[in-house]
Amino acid sequence: MSSVSLIAPPVRYSCVTKGIYRGSYPLERNVDFLKGLRLKTIVTIAPDPLAPLDGLENVEYIHIESAAEQSKSKKKRGLPISSETVKQALDIIQDPERQPVYVHCLNGAQVTCLVIGCYRRTKCWSLNSVLAEFGRYTDYDRVESQFIETLFT
Amino acid sequence: MQEAEIPETGLVNLSDIKSHNIFIPPLNFAPVQRQLYRCGEPTVLNFEFLQLLKIRTVVWLAAEDPKDAFLAFTDNNDISFEHLGILAEGANPWDDITDYTIKAALEILLDKSRYPVMVCCGMGRHRTGTVVGCLRKLQGWSFASLVDEYGRFAGPKGERVSVEMKIEQFDTSVVQVFDPPEWYIKTTS
């Protein structure tokens, strides 16, 4: 092995657009990578707040409470967040003063996908394209697609 | 760094959206880094969206030629089109891309003067995934992380072990970097 340490982004990490990044719950081993993003804000959408990470002391941590994510194996999984929660999250991540911002839920899948899906809708992406992006991270069904489609109506 | 500029429409409410054209990004479209995008072959439906990205270089990795409409689009918008997918004699379109193609593609991706850049192949899965995977390797990403990213675009159960092996085997030291974009300097120093 080389002596250079490898970089590990959080699971399901991705760049959303300039200044907005998404992914799963950040762990200690992701800190080096996250430092490179020069984050100003970390938005945690989860039942409990994220404890500030060593090495990322100058970041503002914002907690938005959500219900626990439900198992994919359930025939009908509910939505752990409300449209109010999404609007609150969108206001924060689109605030230029708070960017670069990292938004995450527990596993970077359902909840983050719903938020980013709604974000794409506000940017006039076709619903189909929004769902194609959603589907790269986790399965979705009608409940989620309806949520995204009707959020702003 | 680590950012991409996707056009901001400035619209916030769906009532605005209703009176606005809907943008359709190409298949498997995603930002990779600032002003570096990946996707499958764009069609006429995607041109309006693409125009907003102000792309200057397209790195084409498919063995097949692109559709005439896409070539015309690049011509009309002063985009330089780099066809790197041309097959060596005796090769098949489903073979992995060659080390030479990966090296040539990465040298464009790491040349600031070519930006904004879009890298694409037919579906934006395997060939694009190989090049982006090798870029991540150059950036020092762990193999598990870059395979995770590749798998997201390859689709569930769609990953090809041969692509993952190609990325693992590719010798990143052959890539010559002269004037890379800022995000690259920050991630590798």
Automatic annotation (TrEMBL), chain A:
GO molecular function: phosphatase activity
Matches recorded under InterPro entries: PFA-DSPs, Prot-tyrosine_phosphatase-like, Siw14-like
Protein name: Tyrosine-protein phosphatase OCA6
Keywords: Hydrolase
Listed Pfam families: Y_phosphatase2 (PF03162)
PANTHER family given in the database record: TYROSINE-PROTEIN PHOSPHATASE, TYROSINE-PROTEIN PHOSPHATASE OCA6-RELATED
Domain of life: Eukaryota
Automatic annotation (TrEMBL), chain B:
Pfam family, one: Y_phosphatase2
Domain Tyrosine-protein phosphatase: 28-183
Record's protein name: Putative tyrosine-protein phosphatase OCA1
Subcellular location: Cytoplasm
Protein family: Belongs to the protein-tyrosine phosphatase family.
Endpoints of the signal sequence: none
SUPFAM superfamilies per record: (Phosphotyrosine protein) phosphatases II
Function: Putative tyrosine-protein phosphatase required for protection against superoxide stress.
EC number: 3.1.3.48
Record InterPro entries: PFA-DSPs, Prot-tyrosine_phosphatase-like, Siw14-like, TYR_PHOSPHATASE_DUAL_dom
One Gene Ontology molecular-function label: protein tyrosine phosphatase activity
Any one cellular-component term (Gene Ontology): cytoplasm
Source organism of the structure: Wickerhamiella sorbophila
Transmembrane region(s): none
Keyword annotations of the record: Cytoplasm, Hydrolase, Protein phosphatase, Stress response
Recorded catalytic activity of this chain's protein: O-phospho-L-tyrosyl-[protein] + H2O = L-tyrosyl-[protein] + phosphate
